Amino acid sequence: MRERYLFLPRNTEKPATVLSHEKVWAAIDALASQNGLTPSGLARRAGLDPTAFNPSKRVAGDGRPRWPSTESLAKVLAATGEALNTFAARVETEDAPSGSVPALVPVAALEAASDRNAFDAAGRPSGATWQQFSFPQPGASFALQVSNEDFQPLYRNGDIVVVAPDAPLRTGDRLALKLTSGRLSLYTLQEAGGEELSVRTIGENSHSLRFRHSAIEWTARIIWASQ
User: Which region is the signal sequence (predicted)?
Assistant: First the structure.
């Protein structure tokens, strides 16, 4: 199938900017990430249906590429303060450095990710719980979106934390910790050693907790947060 293109003229002295279907969506994902949002969060901020930018909406039922409408792009630019020429520059390939297109990592609400079916047997995100989040840095495995006020003032409702399960943990690191009971929450590491892990809760009235390693399903260091 021949790929279609959208042309946005910049001025009469330079060639038109050529935006392929793939690059337009990559630019939208990058814009969402820059603003600390998932694609659905960006759509919501722009006053659109939250599913408008979901990966499933980027291809029609017959397999043809589905483009974002001019109206939806205009609303997104207005909601983020992004200029049209800046948005076009995101997808220009002639000046873009290699590897500049952000990767997509799975993202889910913290409570939803606590579900036993949110991860497969290898500990990887799976199922319909997860959407896609554009994140430019290497080493990320998945992201979690805070959906309550329990972690204020550090993390607020709607903030996103990106985690890396393979990253080494050090005292003072913030981490996501999932127990074998299914509970998933965010903490600050105090001490790791022996048969227990000592952490401190995040939020008002913070206090220390200790978990036996045998009761922990996995831990993942928080490497980025949108606050």
Answer: none
- Pick out the chain residues at pLDDT < 70: 1-19, 61-63, 91-103, 136-140, 227
Name the DSSP letter for residue 48: S
Instruction: Kindly report, as residue ranges, where domains of CATH 1.10.260.40 are found in the chain.
Output: 5-90
Tens digit of each residue's pLDDT (9 = 90 or more) over 34-43: 777 888 888 8
Q: Which two tokens stand for residue 90?
A: 């995101």
Prediction pTM value = 0.57
Q: According to the model, what pLDDT value does residue 71 have?
A: 92
- What residue type is 36 in one-letter code? G
Q: How far is CA 207 from the centre of its chain?
A: 29
CA pair distance 80, 92, nearest whole angstrom: 20
Q: Mark out the alpha helices in 50-201 (DSSP H runs).
A: 70-80, 84-90, 110-113
Residues 6 or more apart from 61 whose CB is under 8 A from it? Answer: none
- Token pair 């805070």 is at which residue? 146
What separation in angstroms does the CA of 32 have from each of 71, 143, 166, 207, 224? 17, 14, 25, 34, 15
pLDDT digit string, tens, across residues 4-24 = 444 444 444 444 445 577 888
Domain 103-225 has CATH 3.40.50.10700: no
